[in-house]
Write a structure and sequence with these properties.
The protein is an alpha+beta fold. About 20% of the residues lie in helices and about 25% in strands. It contains twelve helices and 30 strands. It starts with 11 loop residues before the first helix and ends with a strand. The relative contact order is 0.12.
Length: about 650
């Protein structure tokens, strides 16, 4: 019979239990407060939904009843009732108050929650908006592809590249029927959970149809918001990425043979952070509770949307998850004529942030008074055509793409010029699809290749527009392959975890500075399992092993601590290599509670047989219902020569 003994997890409560077992009870220091994203509360806004990240090894992190008590206590201080709505795919919990809180009240509520020892972070479920400004004009041409001055030089790139075999996710307003898009559209999902926003009469569902985002009255969305017609923003963005070409009509997309998956997140009055985060994870092939798996995981994710504030934990965790699955995330810099460091997701790590240029190659200005223009600054990675419709009477200095004639609900298909960083980002997303159709590349390799192959900005960009103007011809030519010296050294980003989650996709709380098990070096490490109950943790990162590499070695340092005894395997850690579709190429090793050792031991594997492939290194820790086993990993590396 299995030897079962009580597991004592490390927490303030657990420490007291340990002391009690030895006849003494000692007072424990208070757990440090979590982070309250009070800076993301906008002036004049009201909030009713919040995202709370509980520390995964806390009682609240594991128990709904404990979370409910914590939420009730924080709500009582501010005169509201608080209920948990659902857990997000990134691990945070969406909660809702029974009434809206003003800016000051919301900040106080955030601080009260963050002060609780079991809370890691708390933030408002902010609303984000598309980053385009439409102009009702007629078709002229797509100067932004071929014009010598400020076009992206596509024609010669199309001689060899067309994006075939690559799926691009459009995280936006959803799809409309259009003959220039239908042949390349292969599905999607509606992630809008609020029926006021979605207008389709229900919550999340498998139909990503754009129902229209019109606003019938001023101030409906927020103080100062205008009355507006439906934008069909996702339709316009999708056309730039992958409109069908060679069909003797309409426009061409940058990657005309790529496929499109729509994740609908924006509707009436924008979209919520909680919905967008789940959509990003789903688009990349991750798991979202209550949502069917994406049968067409995207290698490119376009987000032509944004809002003010610091990059939130929820946003960054979702992006890291997508990057860890090998998806490149392209985002718009924003249209507020300010430093993009003040706009999310443009200011998040591991994204390709795109500024907009006009037809002359200057930073785009979207109103004659300069009140709206492309954002700028050091977080911008690259620039692409974004247009300026107001500088031509027919709007032809804007970006031409697919659209719909409806002013409220969908009408018939059409084509229109739009302007904005929303229009610049899909140029880059389309180019990434062209790149990946020619060669497998990790997200970090995609970004570096884009930057290395820009051309100088033809005009001016005060404040900085990244490395330069994207150049499709030069970028695709750089992927010609053959010869050359393979890159050497470390291929993994953030190999020692000292930058937190950057570069890695993991279960919430795995990458940590918790002092129970010290890091081998530095302060951070990855701690999988250790709960003493049925639980699975994962940790992964994607990298491309050069085809010309003569050697490739994966190594990491592993420490195993277990409360199990004997020689029976109860808890295990698998180390696997996955291909670009998520299929297992190889199981490199399996460790278990039987391999317990209190010191870090280096483990190494020869990956030379996988040269020329983009692979995902995945650690999966599985724990049964009794007695903990902790698998602690530090100082990883994937080196080539």
């Amino acid at each position: 019979m299995r030897n079962i003994r009580r597991l004592v997890l490390v927490s303030a409560v657990a420490s007291c239990l340990v002391a009690a077992a030895h006849g003494t009870v000692q007072a424990q220091p208070e757990a440090p407060s979590g982070r309250a994203f009070t800076e993301n509360v906008a002036a004049g806004a009201e909030y009713q939904q919040y995202i709370v990240g509980f520390k995964p090894r806390s009682e609240a992190g594991r128990s709904a009843s404990v979370r409910a008590r914590a939420l009730r206590a924080a709500g009582e201080r501010h005169g509201v009732s608080v209920e948990e709505v659902r857990q997000l795919a990134v691990g945070g919990h969406l909660v809702r108050t029974d009434k809206k809180l003003s800016g000051d009240q919301a900040r106080g509520f955030l601080r009260s929650l963050a002060a609780r020892g079991e809370v890691e972070y708390v933030e408002p479920d902010v609303r984000l908006y598309s980053t385009a400004t439409p102009n009702d004009t007629q078709y002229n041409d797509q100067w932004h592809y071929w014009e010598s001055n400020a076009g992206m030089r596509l024609p010669k790139a199309w001689d060899t590249a067309d994006g075939a075999g690559v799926t691009v996710a459009v995280v936006d307003t959803g799809r409309t029927t259009h003959s220039d898009l239908d042949g390349n559209t292969i599905g999607g999902y509606d992630f809008i959970s609020d029926t006021f926003v979605s207008r389709d009469g229900n919550g999340r569902d498998s139909n990503p149809q754009d129902e229209g985002d019109w606003s019938p009255a001023e101030n409906e969305c927020h103080q100062g918001s205008p009355r507006s017609n439906s934008s069909w923003h996702g339709t316009h963005v999708a056309g730039t990425i992958a409109a069908v070409s060679g069909n003797a009509k309409g426009v061409a997309g940058v990657a005309p043979k790529a496929k499109l998956v729509h994740a609908r997140v924006l509707g009436r009055c924008g979209g919520s952070l909680s919905d967008i985060a789940d959509a990003v994870i789903w688009a990349a092939g991750g798991t979202v509770s209550g949502v069917p798996a994406n049968p067409n995981p995207a290698k490119v994710i376009n987000m032509s949307l944004g809002g003010g504030g610091t990059c939130s934990s929820t946003y960054q965790n979702a992006i890291n998850s997508a990057i860890g699955r090998g998806s490149t995330v392209v985002v718009a810099a924003g249209n507020s004529n300010q430093n993009a460091s003040n706009s999310q997701p443009a200011n998040c790590n591991n994204v390709v942030t795109v500024a907009a240029l006009d037809r002359e190659g200057n930073r785009s200005v979207f109103r004659s008074d300069g009140s709206f223009a492309s954002n700028y600054g050091t977080v911008v990675d690259i620039a692409a055509p974004g247009g300026e419709t107001w500088t031509a009477t027919d709007g032809s200095n804007g970006i031409l793409s697919t659209l719909n004639t409806g002013t409220t609900t969908p009408g018939s298909e059409t084509y229109k010029y739009y302007q904005g960083t929303s229009m610049a980002a899909p140029h880059v997303a389309g180019l990434v699809a062209l790149m990946l159709g020619e060669k497998s590349l990790s997200p970090s390799a995609v970004e570096s290749t884009l930057k290395q192959n820009v051309r100088p900005i033809p005009g001016t960009c005060s404040g900085g527009c990244g490395a330069g103007l994207v150049d499709a011809e030069k970028t695709i030519a750089s992927l010609g392959g053959g010869g050359g010296t393979p890159p050497t050294g470390q291929l993994l980003a953030n190999p020692g975890f000292e930058s937190g989650d950057t570069g890695w996709a993991s279960t919430s709380g795995v990458i940590t500075t918790d002092a129970t098990y010290p890091a081998r070096t530095g302060s951070w490490k990855a701690w999988l399992n250790g709960y003493g109950q049925s639980h699975t943790d994962t940790l992964s990162q994607t990298a491309t092993i050069p085809a010309t590499a003569t050697a490739a070695t994966l190594s990491f340092h592993l420490r195993i601590d277990s409360a199990e005894t004997g020689t029976v395997v109860y808890d295990s850690l698998k180390v696997q290599l996955l291909d670009s579709t998520g299929a297992v190429l190889a199981t490199l090793a399996t460790y278990s509670n039987v391999n317990e050792g209190t010191a870090y031991v280096q483990r190494s594997f020869d990956l030379k047989a996988h040269a020329g492939k983009t692979v995902t290194i995945r650690f999966t820790g599985t724990e049964d219902s009794n007695l903990q086993t902790s698998f602690v990993i530090d100082d990883t590396s994937l080196t080539t020569s």
